[in-house]
Amino acid sequence: MKKEYRVVAIPGDGIGPEITKVGIEVINKAVEKYDTKINWVEMDAGGCAIDKFGEPLPAKTLEECKKSDAVFLGAVGGWKWDTLPGNKRPEKALLGLRQGLDLFCNLRPAKVFEELKDASPLKNSIVDKGIDILVVRELTGGIYFGEKGRKGEGEDLVGYDVMQYSKKEVKRIAKVAFEAAMKRNKKLTSVEKANVLEVSRVWREAILEIAPEYPEVELNHMYVDNAAMQLVRAPEQFDVIVTGNMFGDILSDEASIITGSIGMLASASLRDDNFGMYEPIHGSAPDIANQNKANPIAQVLSGAMMLRYSFGMNEAADDIENAVNKVLKEGFRTGDIYSEGKVSLGTKEMGEAILKYL
Ligand SMILES: NC(=O)C1=CN([C@@H]2O[C@H](COP(=O)(O)OP(=O)(O)OC[C@H]3O[C@@H](n4cnc5c(N)ncnc54)[C@H](O)[C@@H]3O)[C@@H](O)[C@H]2O)C=CC1
Ligand SMILES: CC(C)CC(=O)C(=O)O
Ligand SMILES: [Mg+2]
């Protein structure tokens, strides 16, 4: 009997609709071979929802997500909505989805593709040592969700955002990171700023309390400023990085570019069952939106993560990843990963190339 899943697709803004279209086509073809069908439900969130309904995350969108097996999201945001107050901005939709669906764990794998070594801004001598990092980012706490506001007036006006973590929240994400390290090279780096921040000292204490459960994992602690530097100096030293919401956001963008392009990096936002939201790590790239220039590979690889983590379809996920590898091997490139002598493709054409190799 045909297996069926219900997935909410949220294309969002900017390049979101262009790349999710490609992602959906690739996923549909990949699962077909395994007698599986995805029933897609398209919903609005972000700037487009503000335009249509006056709010970034309509209740109906969140409701539909809760009724589904997974969510496949493009990106939200854009210049048009940049002057709106914080709680009315498109990005609020993303935060609302993450919190509303309890997606506390964001996995962001950053791996250099053999074929894209030249696209990395790092020297070949560094890239050749290997870059294969899994950033495990806490996603529903920390400074993005702490108390925020303004007080005072004129020159005394103060803006504030509180960064706080409970031990419970840290331990929950730490467990995922230690488990991931056990399946990889058994090395975990916890990144914080414990030399200055109390929240980071609690973070470190919680990590140290979990560590004895994983004696095989080599654990080290690193301050975030040093981690940012070490990522470009010697990225091969990292296996799994576990960190808070904002540090993980920043470090994963940095990790993406050392592998070639932010247009290549997928992510899975998970809770403690099989449910997840899958989205590229990049934003809506308004500078290249509606020009057929965006790299759809991060979106496509997020689809592979969805098949792997939410549906246990490892073979179909492998098929997608292999198709992407083949396309790169054949020399096909979008603008962000283009180098001399390669074949330059638009978003749509890159999607067609991936479909051909599936
Ligand atoms: N998950 C989400 O929905 C996110 C949304 N945003 C929002 O996106 C908007 C733009 O944010 P930025 O800071 O400019 O970050 P961005 O990630 O959208 O773009 C940064 C740079 O990377 C390029 N880029 C991004 N994705 C690409 C792709 N697939 N192919 C080729 N080039 C790509 C862009 O053209 C731009 O030059 C903002 O409104 C921001 O708040 C930002 C990050 C995540
Ligand atoms: C709008 C931000 C909260 C999203 C972001 O930059 C991210 O999750 O990478
Ligand atoms: Mg980000």
UniProtKB/TrEMBL annotation:
* Residues at the site labelled Important for catalysis: 144, 193
GO cellular component terms, semicolon-separated: cytosol
Keyword field: Amino-acid biosynthesis, Branched-chain amino acid biosynthesis, Cytoplasm, Leucine biosynthesis, Magnesium, Manganese, Metal-binding, NAD, Oxidoreductase
Which GO annotations describe the biological process of this protein? L-leucine biosynthetic process
Question: Which transformation does this protein catalyse, written as a reaction?
Answer: (2R,3S)-3-isopropylmalate + NAD(+) = 4-methyl-2-oxopentanoate + CO2 + NADH
Subcellular localization is given as: Cytoplasm
Q: How does it assemble?
A: Homodimer.
What is known about what this protein does? Catalyzes the oxidation of 3-carboxy-2-hydroxy-4-methylpentanoate (3-isopropylmalate) to 3-carboxy-4-methyl-2-oxopentanoate. The product decarboxylates to 4-methyl-2 oxopentanoate.
This protein is called what? Answer: 3-isopropylmalate dehydrogenase
Organism lineage string = Bacteria, Fusobacteriati, Fusobacteriota, Fusobacteriia, Fusobacteriales
Gene giving rise to this polypeptide = leuB
